[in-house]
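debug: dumping io for the single-chain case to check the tokenizer round-trip. Nothing else runs in this session.
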Amino acid sequence: MNLLAFETATEACSVALWLDGRISERFEIAPRRHAQLALPFAQSLLDEAGIAKSALDAIAVGRGPGAFTGVRLAIALAQGLALALDRPVVPVSTLAALALGALTDDPSGSAILAVIDARMGEIYAGAFERDADGLVNAIAEEVLCRAEDLDLPERPRWCVDGTGWAAYEAALRLRLPGTPVHADGSALPRAAAVARLAARAYERGEAVDAALAQPVYLRDKVALTLEEQHRSR
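debug: decoded output
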């Protein structure tokens, strides 16, 4: 199975190529340059592997939540390639991809809180546990909320990854049962993790038609309409 994966929901831009279990990746922290980098990253990975786009079985994508423009870009790239190649799309939670990265640093079997700074005083948060395959499964619904309002499943130990920890560490500590086993406020989701999760999803038959791949924003609105701005004056 061959997959090309995109993840651009945060300030990091990354693309990964999965070739029958082998992963190569391009990753760069490049705010506002995702559109310039993503397709060249993809082409360089394909060129290095010596395969054509037609050899891909599916396109994987981090479907959010995250920055609106980044999430939209990833979905658009995945849909465009998938439609051109007549291939399906495998959407993957950006929070799940972030949580998967935490497993590298935490061998204890803790539950994982993946948390991204959503600005406007809020966080995107998801709770996960590792499984027998070395991947992650959600143990709670992904949410957008204030850090002090976050409800977590009861687990004795947690590790925390993501920019939400850097922004709201004090409030999040109060929501946890104790000191995290591991915490990294600089962690960002990566396309390599998207590819790993997408490979499992593809094998389970969870790929979708390109037209059905949808972004997940959690936040419905980020700005007032012109009419709402006028009424609020």
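debug: round-trip ok. The chain has two domains: 2-93+190-212, 95-184.
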